[in-house]
Design brief:
Layout: H1 8-15, H2 19-29, E1 32-35, H3 46-63, E2 75-82, H4 89-92, E3 94-97, E4 106-114, E5 117-123, H5 132-153
Antiparallel strand pairs: 1-3, 2-4, 4-5
Length: about 150
């Protein structure tokens, strides 16, 4: 199948055959099925909501402050990053031969943010955990270099 995102209506328009025949060809003859992307839950936990609330209060408090030291604060977090582009469920639907197991790619990285937004993502490259040696020799030097680059551009 050339276009795995093709819909029943598109097949009907191009071949001028009924939906019943299209269904029979796809499911019985080709043993194809529709495969949908999985979605990550949108709702936040109580702790995550509390953190967002604290962040919003701090943003209000310090964003228009005369205290410029706030601009030198950076924060980081180790996170899983999923390798797919967000799209609607309909856009992500594909026809696949039966049985097909979908493979999800993910990676782990450390993200750093400053008052002006994203600074750098440092991939963990096959690491499962972060230790102090890795932080001081690889992770932080990359972050500091990126901060220096950003400061030079301002």
């Amino acid at each position: 199948m050339q276009n795995r995102h093709v819909t029943y209506r598109e097949i009907k328009a191009s071949l001028s055959i009924s939906m019943t025949i299209i269904h029979k060809i796809l499911h019985e003859n080709l043993a194809a099925k529709k495969n949908y992307s999985r979605w990550i839950p949108y709702s936040l936990s109580i702790d995550q909501k509390r953190i967002v609330s604290i962040g919003a209060k701090n943003d209000k408090k310090y964003n228009h402050s005369a205290l410029k030291a706030v601009n030198n604060i950076y924060t980081g977090d180790e996170s899983w990053i999923y390798a797919y582009d967000p799209e609607t469920k309909q856009q992500s639907t594909v026809w696949v031969p039966n049985p097909t197991f979908q493979k999800y790619f993910e990676g782990n990285g450390c993200l750093f943010f400053g008052i002006n937004g994203h600074v750098v993502i440092v991939p963990l490259k096959n690491r499962k955990t972060v230790n102090s040696e890795w932080c001081t020799t690889i992770y932080l030097p990359e972050v500091f270099e990126e901060i220096r680059k950003n400061n030079r551009q301002c």
